[in-house]
Amino acid sequence: MDSHSITLLPNRNWDLTDWMRATGAESYAQMARVASELGLTNPAARTLDIYSERRIRDWATKGLNDYDVALDIIKILRAIAQKNRSIIFNYGNLALHARIFLKSKAGRPEWDTPSQDQIWEICKVASGLNNEIETELGNYDRFLDLRTRVRPAIPWRLYGREQATKQVLERIEQHPVTIIASTAGSGKTALAWHTAMIAYQEGLVTDIDWTTDKRQVMDADGQIYIYEDRSLDENEIIKSIAARFGWDDVLSKPPDKWVGACADHLRKVRHLIVVDNLETVSDQKAVVNMLQDMLTPLGSRAPIASRALITSRVDVESPEPARLDIGGLEPEGSKQYILDLQTRWNISNPLSAEEAVHLAEATRHNPLFIQIALRRYETGNTLEQITSDLNTGENFKAFRTLFEPLIMDLTPSAMAIAAFAALKTWRTGSGTISRSELRHHWQAFCQSKNILPQPEQQEEKFSEDLLSLVRKRIMNSIPSATQNQSLYAFHPLIQAYFLPKVRRSDL
């Protein structure tokens, strides 16, 4: 992580200079020039240089004192952010960042939150693209505030998830709790958001709440953004539900009564509770069990009322929830995603359709890795070099950021299993390794470190280590006729993460 740039997201302590730096504005002169290009004028101004370099410099020092001028400054900053592909005022963040800007040191704490019409106007002036306006505001105006909780910002459309969307909807309809499980960067959050919107549009649910424990987001340039939020737990989820749906009576009760009071409400309505990024929650099982208890109908014939949708990189030790494991995007969708990204990013030497297919396959159709790889292509890397690095784990610092958290609490013997399996499957090209091979290597490693358990405990300890790898989706189990013949496979991107560590003897 130390090789990445780390940035705290906007807050009310930022002044105009901080906002300029975050959007990539190079100077006050550039701000004035962009204002002119956007055709910004202020009818109330008595001078013609309302957005001159001198005035913008003064505002950076003293702060803004005119609300309408502040909205124009947001238009200028957004236009610059779009050019630089900064997330500030961009993608799905406009409404949230505009609200923070107006109440930050750049503006005035007493200023009102911008209206939806004002946000619409900023979109129109700063982008001039109808599809970009639709990206920012979406088709569901009532969830505009909810969109600001989604991290990373929601993609402008969902690519390559037609089948997965149907499967999630089926599970939501039939089960009180559904978990979308997959590796990092696979688009679990985007799938959850778009599916939730469809469930609302089709009348399956009548309202939605969204909570997340995602406090770190990486963009296509390797930039890491830190959200200074509280960690998510059962109480925080209850607080969010009560606030979202206006159930003040829930929080007026003692905390040990919150779950029961919230359950009483949820069983009378058809709402959807989304919990994103469960893997970083300290007690994952407690959250799942709480939602299961609140949402399961009281009688065997009672219909399901409200539901929950969870995203997670790790498996949860609970047999109750319905689960959907997703892989990469559907091939045609990932190809179209690459072609559309090139247009959106104005890449001067775009990949052909055939090359887009090649890149999609090299990234295993993982949408975040598609973005990172395409960004590297744009900055001068060849397609061959990118493919080689993806296969070997070299020169892709994103591997560390995305997959390092998975190994933080593994035992040394579990790490040894993973390292051996990564190297063995890469060398043989088979893609799978047997349980008996893993057991043999685990025993040899434990013996070499003088940590081999007593014979009667060895099978239990080995199974615990192996299960920890499966739960974290580092390895996937492939069922077979007998236990010892069971096969295990690596996701290719996780395998690529382990390979450089094995070569450097970091494991």
TrEMBL record:
Lineage, top ranks: Bacteria, Bacillati, Chloroflexota, Candidatus Thermofontia, Phototrophicales
Protein name according to UniProt: PhoH family protein
Source organism (scientific name): Phototrophicus methaneseepsis
Family annotation (SUPFAM superfamilies): P-loop containing nucleoside triphosphate hydrolases
Domain of life: Bacteria
